[in-house]
């Protein structure tokens, strides 16, 4: 599709730990294309790794959608992690450092929020979880 | 398909160099393998080289902390070497400070730190 400037969204199935590795690799290449610094690439890939693992472990699997983003002349990367799992009943609590139900360290959600520039969490008991993050090039 | 990370033995030190992006399963296997090898070999030190790792997330960070704690209980000291600056910055912002984990900038400094640790923590007195 030469000359095609339409937004291209790539999707990765998150059905196990191999999916988490694939998600990290895709996010790394999009972060490089968007011109993120090495530190910001590392932050975004790390946040993606946390959220992808959450999707697998807590959401019972799902998908990541990744795309380049533009705003006010800045380029960036937007990532969506979606699952149809049990959802998060208490968002406030889930965003607290150290809170976990899965035997992890409880840093996934709260840490990913700190590492991203924008963070949106759409969830509720019984309606799955959708987390969107954006990281902008400086 | 999950590969195992090789654990090399040099004298009484076990050396692990993580060269690929690890699946969670492989991370857990490494934790188990290292614990077993410490007991089998009577190793006094473990060096984990993460210089090739582009990220350390909370899962790998927890493995490093757990290996350090397990090896201490089994009579060995662990040093994590070669962490990239961007990884260090990200880890701290993520909220992981690896408090119980000894670190060194590179392999040589790590081995020196191990020698000091083993000598000071194993004085020949009852």
Can you describe this structure?
The complex is a heterodimer of chains A (138) and B (126). Chain A is an alpha+beta fold. Chain A has a single domain, classed as Heat Shock Protein 90 (2-Layer Sandwich), CATH 3.30.565.10. Chain A is built from four helices and five strands; from the N terminus they run βααββααββ. A five-stranded antiparallel β-sheet of chain A has the order 1-2-3-5-4, with helices on one face. Chain B has one domain: STAS domain (Transcription Regulator spoIIAA, 2-Layer Sandwich), CATH 3.30.750. Chain B is built from four helices and five strands, in the order ββαβαβαβα. A five-stranded mixed β-sheet of chain B has the order 1-2-3-4-5, with helices on both faces. In chain B, α3 links the parallel β4 and β5. At the A-B interface, α1, α2 and α4 of A face α2 and α3 of B.
Identify the notable features of this structure and list them briefly.
heterodimer; A: 138 residues; alpha+beta; Heat Shock Protein 90; 5-stranded antiparallel beta sheet; 4 helices; globular; B: 126 residues; alpha/beta; Transcription Regulator spoIIAA
The secondary structure category of chain A is alpha+beta
CATH topology of chain B: Transcription Regulator spoIIAA
Largest β-sheet summary of chain A = 5 strands, antiparallel
**Total number of helical segments of chain B?**
4
Summarize the structure.
Chain A: Residues 39-138 form the Histidine kinase/HSP90-like ATPase domain. Chain A is of the alpha+beta class. Helix content of chain A is 36%, strand content 28%.
How is the topology of this model organized?
The complex is a heterodimer of chains A (138) and B (126).
Chain A: E1 10-14, H1 17-33, H2 38-57, E2 62-71, E3 74-83, H3 91-94, H4 108-115, E4 118-123, E5 129-136
Antiparallel strand pairs in A: 1-2, 2-3, 3-5, 4-5
Helix pairs in contact in A: 1-2, 2-4
Chain B: E1 7-10, E2 13-17, H1 24-41, E3 45-49, H2 58-73, E4 77-81, H3 85-94, E5 102-104, H4 107-121
Parallel strand pairs in B: 2-3, 3-4, 4-5
Antiparallel strand pairs in B: 1-2
InterPro entries (chain A): HATPase_C_sf, HATPase_dom
Pfam family, one (chain A): HATPase_c
Protein name (chain A): Anti-sigma regulatory factor
